[in-house]
Fold Histidine ammonia-lyase.
Amino acid sequence: MVTLTGKTLNVEEVKRVIFQKEKVEVAAESMQDVMNSHAAVEKIVQDDRTIYGINTGFGKFSDVLIDACDVKELQINLIRSHACGVGDPFPESVSRAMLLLRANALIKGFSGVRPALIEILVAFINQEVHPVIPQQGSLGASGDLAPLSHLALALVGEGEVFYQGEIYPSLKILEKKGIAPLTLEAKEGLALINGTQAMTAMGVVAYLEAENLAFKSELIAAITMEGLNGIIDAFEEEIHLARGYQQQVDTAKRMRMFLSGSKLTTRQGEIRVQDAYSIRCIPQVHGATWQALDYVKEKLEIEMNAATDNPLIFDNGNKVISGGNFHGQPIAFAMDFMKIAVAELANISERRIERLVNPQLNDLTPFLSPNPGLESGAMIMQYCAASLVSENKTLAHPASVDSIPSSANQEDHVSMGTIGSRHAHQIIRNVNKVLAIELICAMQAVEQRGVEKMAEATRAFYDKGREIVPSITKDRVFSKDIEACAEWLKHC
């Protein structure tokens, strides 16, 4: 059970909730903060104070006053009108993460919602009911308005949800589960959709996949090292301590561990004096990716515990401030950084693939073919890797350098952070396939060298990999091997 406090949620807890379906609860003191904050909103309505989003319109309509009798209708109108998302839905894992992060933000006690709203969010999580949320349509400032509106639609019984692998009308599943649809009260619609939970949820799911791939990339590179009789000296600790980057030191240490006991690696001068950069500089390049991932993780954990709606309520309602915490710039930058850093894992992997298949760069059979000429072997796998790497270069263009005004120029600078997070996820999926190709080629190369000479760690990974992709004894449809290996790498 993960206990939400609004302050302490971390990536590991999110991982357990998303992928292991761990249930959540709200800390009692946090629920008290929610009640206090809601009481402040009720008093504002009773006192007929003019507060943005409670009894005014939204965006450019912020100067339009709303009668007290219409504040509930104001909130449901907001959700319906802002549910303009288009395109394929986010993966269920992202939808689940959005529920979790929205609940965690609202229990901080700055948003003025009722406990009932928190309870339905928690019920959706614990009963594995996940809103269908289109991926496209958010500018990443004023919050993820369109995606979060689709989340809110599911809560009020007007949207669609994933349940047990199928899509249903939300109301049907609410009735099945005995959950009363939420009726929005003052500020609750705005509190639900003003926030960065779409980009942050997509970001944390992407980060978790990237973290797993970054570890796997080193193990795969170690098998490539063996397939190419790589020089182990380049990973000696002194070299990396001399530069001073801890992530580089750590990567080199893992490479030494993976290759410990291998009879397929060499020492400098035995076969060649130096390896190419894609081999020799694994700690420097992969280590730099880890530096970026550490930065991304830090920003995600701050944002997961942030109050990102507007306005925010302080001092029991005596101070209500309109600000801009919904602006996704910190996450937009982090997503763009992750895009570039993870794309590099594929860039360097593709160069290692080339060294494995190019007969001018090794002494293996050309293109690792069992019958060169008659059979092409891994020739076109390298083409596929090159295509994915090139696509990543386009996707890695920073989304955060763009902005476009909205709401009649009231909202005149936006982050595009949600686009950045989506592109990061696409890049990570492409990198996964490139690494799968490297692994397939590396396994074929070590077979030619002698798998009995492999290190213990790399041999264990090779044996598991061979359960997914059999040895290349003749040409076949390698697309199926690449997809199967990529899927395995995501979960192994």
Summary: The CA atoms of residues 153 and 480 lie 39 Å apart.
